[in-house]
TrEMBL record:
Ranges of residues in domain Thioredoxin: 8-171
PROSITE patterns reported for this sequence: THIOREDOXIN_2
Pfam families hit by this protein: 1-cysPrx_C (PF10417), AhpC-TSA (PF00578)
UniProt GO molecular function: thioredoxin peroxidase activity
Task performed by this protein: Thiol-specific peroxidase that catalyzes the reduction of hydrogen peroxide and organic hydroperoxides to water and alcohols, respectively.
SUPFAM superfamilies: Thioredoxin-like
Protein name: Thioredoxin domain-containing protein
GO CC entries: cytosol
PANTHER family: ALKYL HYDROPEROXIDE REDUCTASE C, THIOREDOXIN PEROXIDASE
Source species of the chain: Diutina rugosa (Yeast)
Family that this chain belongs to: Belongs to the peroxiredoxin family. Prx6 subfamily.
Length: 225
């Protein structure tokens, strides 16, 4: 029987681990260092949806780097397979995968982060072992989990949404704001409820009161949040 996964919630410390990857061995917390990190899992190598996803993340890696964020993929195969798969990924998508892809054939890290696919009984490897789902974790420099998303194996992720949420989290940490529905970088933001109107006059001179509980403000952003 597989070990029970720890209960991971927003605000939990991301479990540390050591693993072999496509770029060599890593210790996860050391790899993150003082950066943010995005850890995202895939069912297996040389699979159609995963190939498109890795290519998309690879193309967006410079944008994540601008936000002091490191990428780290995971797939239930060997590091050698990952390196061979990267050739296909570049051929199909044009994206050059430079970030590590964790080798997790025994599902040790997948279980640690509760990434196992229990929904689809057909999502098995050639040995009949359950594969991983498409999980996404955004982890901040203090190693705290700030976002958890899980997709079924059949559904590809939206990399723009991962980047959008990262922008929102970093913006909120720095400026005492939250972001409304469908917010995009450059849109007006919501003044955090903990900020009084008197404080808001100084922090956000152009803020406006829509309702006593909803105050909006433009927020000029430099190239970095």
């Amino acid at each position: 029987m597989s070990p029970a996964a720890p209960t991971l919630r927003l605000g939990s410390t991301a479990p540390d681990f050591e693993a072999d990857t496509s770029t060599g061995p890593i210790k996860f917390h050391d790899y993150i260092g003082d950066s943010w990190a995005i850890l995202f899992s895939h069912p297996d190598d040389f699979t159609p949806v995963c190939t498109t996803e890795l290519g998309a993340f690879a193309k967006l890696e410079p944008e994540f780097a601008k936000r002091n964020t490191k990428l780290l993929g995971l797939s239930a195969s060997s590091a050698e397979n990952h390196r061979a798969w990267a050739v296909d990924i570049k051929d199909v998508t044009g994206g050059q995968v430079g970030f590590p892809i964790i080798a997790d054939p025994e599902r040790k890290i997948a279980h640690l982060y509760d990434m196992i696919d229990y929904q689809d009984a057909t999502n098995l490897d050639d040995k009949g072992v359950q594969l991983t789902i498409r999980s996404v974790f955004i982890i901040d420099p203090s190693k705290t989990i700030r976002l958890i998303m899980s997709y079924p194996a059949s559904t590809g992720r939206n990399t723009a949404e991962v980047l959008r949420v990262l922008d929102s989290l970093q913006l909120g940490d720095k400026h005492r704001v939250t972001t409304p529905i469908n917010w995009e970088r450059g849109d007006d933001v919501i003044v955090h409820p903990s900020v009084t109107n008197e404080e808001a006059k100084t922090l956000f001179p152009k803020f406006r009161v829509v309702k006593p509980y909803l105050r909006m403000t433009p927020l000029k952003l430099k190239s970095k949040l």
